[in-house]
Amino acid sequence: MRAIFQWNVGSRVLELGRRTLIMGVVNVTPDSFSDGGLYIDAEKAVVRAEQLLDEGATIIDVGGESTRPGALVALVTESVSEEEERRRVLPVIRDLKRRRPDAVVSVDTHKAGVARAAVDVGAEVVNDVSGFRWDPKMAKTLAELKVGAVLMHTRGRPEEWHSLPPIGDPVLMVKRDLRQWAEAATLAGIKRDRLVLDPGFGFGKRFEENYPLLAHFADLQQAGFPLLAGVSRKSFIGRTLARDGKDAEVTERLYGTLAAETALILKGAHIIRTHDVRFAVEAARVADAIVASGG
């Protein structure tokens, strides 16, 4: 069974667990692996966000910097400056909230300054792929902002992923790290009821290390926090769907994505982060019916 949580995102509380919430992805970037360049224009990004809301998304996650493999996000040599990231995401968040004031908007950033600015224009959730570790000001900033926060597990940085040694037990490592990082976040002043944990599929994990994490996703419930999972069109799915030795293209990974997302819901995911909202909503309805029936 999936635990029920009340997620405090500041201005309201979202119930997690009775049904799966869908987080729709809007990347305001020229280089994200799935939709890079499609919504770099703010107006197009807002229209896309409204479409995802109409398709059933509860949360819209707006990001202004790619963290695909190879993207340079080291603090000293950022490929996207804080100023540029603000320029990309703030108009989208501001205009979306003006047009859809009831929308729950998340900002996907690892920079405390961007997080604060995004909250100022209406964001209620900060989704940090670094687990609040790349910017030493992030945890304290989130404690001050009193918004919802997604703490994601990342091993190393994108420019290091190709050279990281294999993980002995990916499930044990992610469980241990998430527990320690969540404890550090609460010690920094972030209330437990504001935190959601994400194991970070594909982030510093090799192809063969993602499937044990998916198979044993239910073990992560032991940490006592709600769980978010993002597997949408990721490379480990493309590898599994390979034909003639060639990984499936991003555009050919929908059905594999839905299979993984359904499995994750059955294993306890509270929120699914995806590019394909309409299809994920339908899959989640069926998976939720199974969960409600004792599955």
Describe the structure.
This protein is of the alpha/beta class and about 300 residues long. The chain has one domain (about 10-290): TIM Barrel (Alpha-Beta Barrel). It is built from nine helices and ten strands. Strand 1 (about 5-10) and strand 2 form a beta hairpin. The radius of gyration is 18 Å and the shape is globular. The relative contact order is 0.14. Residues about 30-35 and about 70-80 have low confidence and may be disordered.
Task: State the name of the first-level CATH class.
Answer: Alpha Beta
Specify the helix fraction band: 25-40%
Order of helices and strands: EEEHEHEHEHEHEHEHHEH
Q: How many domains?
A: 1
How does CATH name the architecture? Alpha-Beta Barrel
Gyration radius from CA atoms, angstroms: 18 Å
Low-confidence stretches: 32-37, 70-78
Number of helices: 9
Q: Please state roughly what percent of the residues sit in beta strands, choosing from under 5%, 5-15%, 15-25%, 25-35%, 35-45% or over 45%.
A: 5-15%
Largest sheet: 8 strands, parallel
